[in-house]
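Type II secretion system F family protein
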Amino acid sequence: MRKKPFRNDMERCEWLERLHSLLSEGYSLSYSLLMLKEFETESGRRWCESVYDALQSGEEFIYPLREGGFSKEVINCIFLADKYGDLREGLIQGALILKKKYELSQKGRKMLSYPIFLFFGLLIMIGIMSEGVFPHFTMFFDSMGQDLPWLTKLVVSLLSFFQLPVLLLIFTIVLGVIIWFRRKTLNEQLTLLLKLPILRSVTKSFLTYYFASQLAPLLENGFSLHQSLLILKEHSQISFFQNEADAISNDLRNGFLLSESIRNRPYYEVQLASVIAFGEAKGSVGKELERFSNILFNRFYEKLQKLLSVSQPVLIGGIGFIVMVLFLSMMLPIFNIVDGW
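Structure:
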């Protein structure tokens, strides 16, 4: 099996930053790749050579990036910058996206590893109590002709419900929902995500940022709005934005302003239409979109960080509550037995 050239997004980020640095110093893309391969591992060196060979044979720069594990949004950012703008800007923006994603994944791993460890410990505790402790309590109280405390009876009833057949049924339902969701079109998936209160805000921020960040550099590099939308329709690496560019182009042909078309679409933050309207009034839509996309980028990752920050105490609190209930359900029968003596 061929070893991957990069282990994680941070290594991809650093590679893009080094390539950006060489291009900024005046080296050509081909020569920069030859220089970079000298500082890579064996797998990274082979990958750099494949990128160089692809460029020499006339292929687009983005195709080898897919083999390097670069995400679709990063490839899209670099591709549009390479084809219609400044490749260096695309590289630095792609590096920033990868850095943020890596930091977020590391923070998520650190924050969720402890709750996940507690959760598996809780499952072991539940298994021991349901198979070893509660059956003895039930047999003992039945032989004494007494009822278990209501909390213990409730816990025993719940644990008897979550047996293997029920768990398999729940797993099958969840798996079926995932398959059903993945078979829907991207627009249908996004429509469903926008209906979920927790994910609605994050989804809108994500879509608004990528729409603004793709359209802004095209307008700033002298393309008209119609030309920019046509480029997105034909060359965006994300199918959703291809469809959106086509739909917005139809609105423009029907006499709508860009701000009016955006306002009528449910996928974007409400501020996007206002920012575009302000840019239309000043004749600087590209500049306003670029400024707004930078704000959205920071806001988007702040929302994800807050979501992670909230999830840890919620998970720990939920696990703690379940442990407390299990403890009380086990201790109450013991107290009743002691009182009976």
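Residues 87-144 form the longest helix (58 residues).
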